[in-house]
Amino acid sequence: MPIKTVPTPQLIFEKSYPGRIGCNVPVCDTPEVDLQATLGDLREDLHLPEIGELDLLRHFTNLSHINYGIETGFYPLGSCTMKYNPKINEKTAALPGFANIHPMQPVETIPGALDILIGVQDMLSEITGFDHITLQPLAGAHGEMACLMLIKAYHEARGEGHRHTVFIPDSAHGTNPASAARCGYDVKSIPTDAEGNTDVAALEKALEGEGGKNIAAFMLTNPSTLGLFEPNIEKICQMVHAVGGQVFCDGANMNAMVGTTRPGDHGFDCMHLNLHKTFSTPHGGGGPGCGAIGLQKHLEPFLPVPVIRRNESGVVVADYTRPHSIGRVSAFYGQFLMEVRAYTYLRAYGKEQMAEISRHAVLNANYVRARLKDVLKPAHDRPCMHECILTAEKYKKEHGVRALDISKRLIDYGYHPPTNYFPMIVPECLMIEPTETEAKETLDAFCDAMIAICKEAVETPELLHDAPTTQIVGRLDETKAVKDLDVRWKFADTRQPVTV
Amino acid sequence: MSNVPDGLKYTKSHEWVRLEGDVATIGITDFAQSELGDVVFVELPNVGRVLGAGDSFGSVESVKTVSDVYAPIAGEVVEVNDALGSQSELINTDPFGKGFMIKIKVQNAADVDGLLSAGDYSGLIG
After folding, report:
1. Read out DSSP for A247-287?
2. Lowest CB count within 10 Å: A10, A40, A179, A229, which one?
3. Does residue A389 belong to any structural domain of this protein?
4. Domain membership of residue B74 as a residue range
């Protein structure tokens, strides 16, 4: 591997030079106003950087060059569905008719926007098999929580508010127990069996007697975080329903099922979707999330307001008159421009080709799994869904190389690492989700890199321990970052910046 | 290989117990700290809390994860390791010594007989 040295970039504050300016303001030809007198106490201690226009331009351009994203390279971060978000999404979201409307506008003036919302709702309803969709929750965990709030309202309306336990598999994402606890529920962990499925015998036992009387819901991720489809899903839903519990589907892995199979048909009562995973709206800094939820008829009275629906005349309205509603879960209608992007994506794909999403996502993950299985053992001996879970346990035991070291070394090879150490029930876990938008050549190049790294792990493990060595920073001290969090640049009393 | 000292008792959930008279010292094992990675925060109970066997009495947070820690046997908390507040790394560097978590006055010293021996535990973690 050629070592490429990249200089550590300076912060904008370090480039500041007293008195330098980025643009010349023309001489004022109107009476000058004393800002200090008009605005009050103007702070002198803000340390605004003083820099020329060209240096400023270079600063941010160079920073952008050291960024890594799906538009610069392969991003196989498991459980995150880092698919390519087609550019046409941005084009439609920027249309003035969408971009310039305001949530405080009278609802009668935005029929087009309401049409988008109900269009997304209708399509998601058809894709998931749920009777109702609301787009309001602003993130995946928010969607989980909204579903649990609906379930809680449902139980209370039936005089069963005593139900206080939520069952969650031990493979679940941490947001599940967090959402349950946030809704005031106790959490009971359900084990996973040797095949990677929910341990049905353990569930049966947990549902006996008091367990069954007190269960409010079972939160199940399908396909599971192990990248496996739950073969007993119908039976599990029946078992929980038989004792009066509800079943929530964590839809983080919906990309494995789009157009192929529907959670609403499996027996689930409600689910959440991550539009920023499955339906190609941006992740993270690129835009806010959307944790749309789907639910069956019996939960409909409790939907958060406003409910976007067609009235008796077929006109789309925002309905606030909902006596049993759990209330608002967010301001206004959710992340509207994200719905525009999701709408665009869904319409661009079209119903006929929707299944290609999940088929290619599953195919790509199984291809990676098959190519890597001789160097990194799959956690379970069966085909995976949209992501494959591999274990680096052998390298830890025999060569002192951990999953983290492999991930860090991948950075030197020019790839974003996969998710590691999740799910926690798999030792030295690497979770690879290629998504459907990658070509075979990309997957091959990535697999070649992984195979080369596994060879290095045996022959030159120090290369992995020291990685990454080709980036602007080396191995970061994550422990210090957690224990001694310091994210603020510290200025000296003078205007000159100091390093800390 | 993880260190599994003789003379201690162990649990499947990776706690260890050292019984001296009717006081049991409890911590997490070398294997557990190695799996967790660098410990960055430790949550401990208050002195005086009465624990049943299997009760969660605190948690250990590492850069990777947060794990609950369970009381192997029943008893009342008589001491907690305050040093972990500022030096959580003691769990990594000395899990069976300075990195202990709590001491409890046990209800029934014979309870430890039901726990794993060093040999059993070594077999469990392979």
Report:
1. EEEEETTGGGTTTT--HHHHT-SEEEE-HHHHT-PPPGGGS
2. A40
3. yes
4. 9-107
Strand order in the sheet with A429-432: A377-378, A388-391, A429-432, A419-420
Confidence of residue A492 (pLDDT cuts 50, 70, 90): low
| In the predicted structure, residue A192 carries a pLDDT above the cut 50 | yes
What is the distance in angstroms between the Cα of B105 and the nearest Cα belonging to chain A?
28
Check: CB of residue B115 under 8 Å from CB of residue B70: no
The total number of structural domains that make up chain A: 2
- Per-residue model confidence as pLDDT tens digits over A171-188: 999 999 999 999 999 999
Residue A499 CB burial class (10 angstroms; 0-12, 13-18, ≥19): exposed
- Domain range holding A217? 102-349
Closest residue, chain A, to B63 (C-alpha): A479
Which of B2, B13, B38 to mutate against chain A (most A CBs within 10 Å)? Answer: B38
Would you list which residues of chain A are within 8 Å, Cβ to Cβ, of chain B? 421, 424, 427, 478-479, 482-483
User: Domain for residue A298, yes or no?
Assistant: yes
Instruction: Tell me, yes or no, whether A193 and A342 share the same domain.
Output: yes
pLDDT in tens, B17-74: 999 999 999 999 999 999 899 999 999 999 999 999 999 999 999 988 888 999 999 9
User: Do A202 and A335 share a domain, yes or no?
Assistant: yes
Q: How many domains does chain B have?
A: 1
Q: Which residue of A188, A398, A478 is the best one to mutate when testing the B interface, meaning the one whose CB has the most B CBs within 10 A?
A: A478
Residue A490, in any domain of the structure? no
* Count of pairs with CB atoms under 8 A, one residue in A, one in B: 17
The alpha-carbon gap from A189 to the nearest alpha carbon of chain B, in Å, equals 12
Task: Tell me how far the alpha carbon of residue A376 is from its chain's centroid.
Answer: 26
What CATH number is associated with residue B34? Answer: 2.40.50.100
Q: Do B88 and A483 touch (CB under 8 A)?
A: yes
Which among A289, A291, A244, A293 has a CA at the least distance from the CA of A264?
Answer: A293
| Site of tokens 């799996």 | B35
